[in-house]
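**Protein fold record**
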Amino acid sequence: MTDGGVAGTLCGGRPATFFKACVLSAFLFVTGSLHAAKPNFVIIFTDDQGYGDLSCFGSKTIKTPNIDYIAEHGVRFDQAISPTPVCSAARASFFTGRTASQHGVHDFLSDADSSTDQWLDGETLLSEILSDQGYRVGLFGKWHATTKSWNPVRGFDRWLTYDERQADWVNQYLHSGTVYFSSDGQAIHYTGVQARYLSEEAVRFIDSSGDDPFAAFVNFVEPHFPFEGLPDRLVEQYRAIATDIVAAGDTSSFNSSANVLTAQPNAPGVDTHAETIAQYLAAVTLVDEQVGRLLDALTGRGLLRNTVVIFTSDHGHLTGQYGLYGKGNATVPQNLYQQSINIPLIISGPIEHVTPGQVRQEFVNLYDIFPTVLELIGAGEAQADYDGPGISLMPLLKGRRMIRFRDFQFAEMGNARMAHDGRWKLVRYYRKNSSLEPKEVWFDLSHPLGERRPAPAPSESQQERLRTALNDFFSTYETDEHSGRRIWDLPRHNGMEIWRKKTF
């Protein structure tokens, strides 16, 4: 997998101040103490998180000891991707276990521009299934899978997310300052470092659950832009590092001569590039600190031994690679770069469910978490009704060797679709004029230049292999109503949809 990080230490333990708690937690992981019938869940989502920007995934400069701890005592998936490299679509896939071409959310959703409020109507959400199984379910932070985020969504007992009625939508992404929230539908505001507020409220929810099993979704907005306003104590430790990264040329110029993509003007100026990188790295470290707070709370309450902790992100992020900042909609037409689709995925949990210390190389996808959770909670009826592409990760979590778990990875972004087999990558763009043949672009992921240049098409047999895989997958996991092939006919998601602006 291509390292999408801007920086990269070896996986280490948590800070010495946490040593006693770590020893206790490790003992419980190893001994497999008595557990409740159903495990608790703490699912931590970051926003626009680069795959390589965690020390346990290879970063040599960024500090993420608490996230590393989850990896050390759980399973790290090195080949995880997002089904769609944009926020709302990826989160909708996570909560439904289905592709964008099944549920219909293909881009970020805006209350101001969206033409319908019916997003995900008729879909069965993971929160609903957990609630039906007796869980208390809480969401803290970013929702963004439907519009009207101030309204509590089906299946949640506790709702703390953003309120676009009170402020501009950018307000939700403030790392510090006054952020406007909806608390169970009631408008409130909070002034301070919002990541800390979210972790504190998640702990209060856990404490209120009593003897009921709980599922807490903690959705930080870091390290999403704006790349400013992070605590200076964190930014300062990365400013020199960021300057060195920029000076070393770890971010490359966009190659317009390839005639594939046109850059959107999202990148910072030359004078602010290093500061942007420093703020981004500080945001990742801020999240790590809050992960430590959550782990300490679980440990101190004797809950960690029966809690499945999942750390992941909605999608990846370009931080200057190819001269771009952003994700799948950072270019016209949309891109499916590895940096956009690769995500970190780490899962730890009770010893009977998770064999710790593993690093898995199977092709996995964000929507695999949906059937994995269903199997963990024993939701047999929901498992039988599930019609998405996700595969339960339970055999991998338990350390079983899986032959050909998946031969291909698939992703989509609007009218763009992708398939790769680890080396050859096919990106196909469907045209608004359906009488025209789709545009196809090939990449050789084994080439030193990676995706900086399109590659000559591979052999005819390899072309046919990937085309057949892509066609078979999406013919199975798409609906006529929601397919990205006819994205121009679908309801408007926002006022910036790139496929309505320019096509091949």
